[in-house]
Design goal:
With 243 residues, this protein is mainly α. The protein has helices spanning 12-45, 48-78, 83-118, 129-152, 158-183, 189-224, 233-241. It is found in: Cytoplasm.
Amino acid sequence: MNRDEFNNHISEQLNRNLEGLFNQVLEMGGIVEQQLADLNQALENNDEEKAHNVLTLDKLINREEMEIDRLCAAVLARQQPTASDLRLIVMAIRIAVDLERMGDEAVKIANMAIAQCKDDGSCSSLPAFDYLKQLMAASSDMLKTTLNGFSRLDTSKTMEIYHEEERMDEVLKLASQEIQEKLAETNDVETVDIYIKMLLAIRAAERITDHSLNIAESVVYLVRGKDVRQMDEQALAKFLQSE
């Protein structure tokens, strides 16, 4: 499959709507990429302004999801989409949901950073901060890879995304263990509160990587026409290597 398939209909309006839908998904993904970039800067530099930018961008992400829903409904109601068109519509909705949830998770992390900044603290002083940085770096890289795959209808990086998500599961376990050990060492209410916020931020960062894998699997369905969400590693690799 290539993008030309979405531009060869007799109806020029359908061609425009499908191309618009494709581009809208990429635009929404670009906003989430910027959101994660701002979040990384907020965490690294204790930049409260960048953290607030994450919250502002989340509102824009929510509007983008609504626009994608509108475009999908317009195609279904007024046009006669082919089977491949319908796959694009279904996947656009599914990817938009994952992108919107990424934004929600980013907001949770930004709120932790804002709270720490208001207390004149440094995120880097919190337990498991290095693990959080690993998770956020992976989140940004995985999202970029999946969006590139979507834009080119390319599934060649799917297993790379799969393995990176598994690696981030292990990072989450290590990070959670470190924070829980620190929690066991203190009875200070304020310290316990910020440690719990950090634990929630770690879990939110890991969920962002989960959503990147979801998007990669959606791209596989769009390109190959098969739902691979329930496949294990071996079955997925075998399918992707098949013609």
